Amino acid sequence: MGNNKYKILIVEDDRSILGFVQTILEANGYQVLTAERCAQGLLVFSSHIPDLVVLDLGLPDLDGTEFIRQARALSAVPIIVLSARTEEADKVSALDLGANDYITKPFGTAELLARVRAALRSGRLSPQATPASRFTVDDLVIDYDRRQVTVAGSPVHLTQTEYNILAFLSQHTGKVMTYAAIIREIWGSMDDGSVKKLQVNMANIRKKLGCRPGDSRYVTNELGVGYRMLDE
């Protein structure tokens, strides 16, 4: 790959975790930039515009969500949140601000690398690029121009709403979309019944795509948080 290495910025104040993540990424051919504070991270971010950010939320100077807010104002670079916070509200607020994914500490090498690869792929496919006229994952094809969905060549008959949900997830493939983000996109506003309505639509979509309960071939359910369209 020569100089064409992906640049990854790690913003993490725990030196042992920082060292662990840096070692894994460098061993796998990534170029690594590091920062131990939010302000320093933003400085490195704006001067080097990395291909990916791995971000701890609990930073000593400013909360990591502040980093997401400011970074998103500059660029759509994928951000993976490292979180010791297992509370769903924290994950949801980070994702709603524009993070792409989160990993809960402690985590293993294989999980970290898989999430990094997925986020880099979703960064390459970011909506800034001209949108493709079709989306494919496994044997599922979405033809955006015709608003048609096929699985293994057979048409799948979705309602307008079901199609819109599936298309929205596919346009953010590899990224966890929170319930609120999907509901805002599809229905414009949230009310008490929104999440239930979304879950019912999702269950119908999965059934029509031929997924049995618990089978997450195309879309995974991130419990209590949202849904993610798989990208391979």
CA(first)-CA(last) distance:
23 Å
How confident overall, as mean pLDDT?
87
Coarse morphology: globular
Spans where pLDDT lies below 50 across 5 or more residues: 126-130
Strand order of the largest sheet: 2-1-3-4-5
What structural class do the secondary elements suggest? alpha/beta
As a percent range, the share of helical residues equals 40-55%
**Would you report the number of β strands?**
12
Task: Give the biggest sheet.
Answer: 5 strands, parallel
Count of individual helical segments: 8
Structure description:
This protein is α/β, with parallel strands linked by helices and 232 residues long. It contains eight helices and twelve strands. A hairpin with a 2-residue loop joins strand 8 and strand 9 (154-156). Helix 6 (160-171) crosses helix 8 (194-208).
Entry summary:
This protein has 232 residues and is an alpha/beta fold.
Key traits:
single chain, 232 residues, alpha/beta, five-stranded parallel beta sheet, four-stranded antiparallel beta sheet, 8 helices, 42% helix, 22% strand, globular
